[in-house]
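User: Some background: our group keeps a shared notebook of sequences we're curious about, and every so often someone picks one and asks for a predicted structure to add to the entry. Today it's my turn. The entry only has the sequence so far, pasted here. Could you supply the structure so I can complete it?
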Amino acid sequence: MTDGPAGGRQAMAERQRRTGGAVVVAGLMVSVCVGTAGCSGGDAAAGDARSADPVETLHRAADTLVAAGSSQARTSMEMATGGTRVTIRGEGVYDYRRQLGRLKVLLPQDPAGTREHRPITELLAPGALFMKNRGAGVPADKWVRVDTATLLDGNLVTGGATDPLAAAEVLRGTRTATYVGETRLAGTAVRHYRGTADLAKAAAGASEGNRGPLASAAKGFASAEVPFDVYLDEQGRIRKVRHRFSFLGGARNGNVAVASTTLLYDFGAPAEVRLPAAGDIYTGRIAQE
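Assistant: Of course. Here's the predicted structure to add to the notebook entry:
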């Protein structure tokens, strides 16, 4: 942020966002430029980003993804507790209109350098998570189904990857945000925003499939306030979002800090996701690992 009149106007706008508490009506929203036709150059685009209200820009980021249709996704989840840090990575595709996704999730290696588990295949659906190669006594050819609204974290953490649309819908709860500046991400010009979202507010404005899980997360996390950094391209689509969650790990472990990063790219890529048939879902007892 620069000094002088421009910096003063930004500071005043930020104070208004923190104290106003009201959502600007749709008619006052700054429209997102779709496609390259009619868009101005980089300097003008950066100027538009600075003049737009960052909070309102992020409130509609999830809707922009739905309009985009689909994309490929990479995920990374870093967990730290008691001096131990592990990272879980995933990669796959997501259909934002159908709210269906498929990820291959790689669990961390053990100290000997060999993988403790085979990659887990996860299917993401409204209100549900399906996992194959789950282990814990589940037959290799069966899926485990989890009702995400019953999870204390709303499946923002449990699956080892945050559902890409849920990650975007967390931003519907943005309370404060600032425009950091323009940068490049994997060769694409993006606009960097930093702020804090409230999970209860996000749940109230979320799609039906994510409303229950986000409401559970608002109650289950150590704090419903979620700091984030997000990068939007010139069409307003999320290219990268990083959330920082904290949940209770019990008396021995204390709070567990989680940093969940989602990268989105190749918009419009085919995202065929078929959910398992009822006979392919395991209904027996799952061992505790």
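Suggested note for the entry: The first strand starts at residue 70 and ends at 81. Residues 1-42 have pLDDT under 50 and may be disordered.
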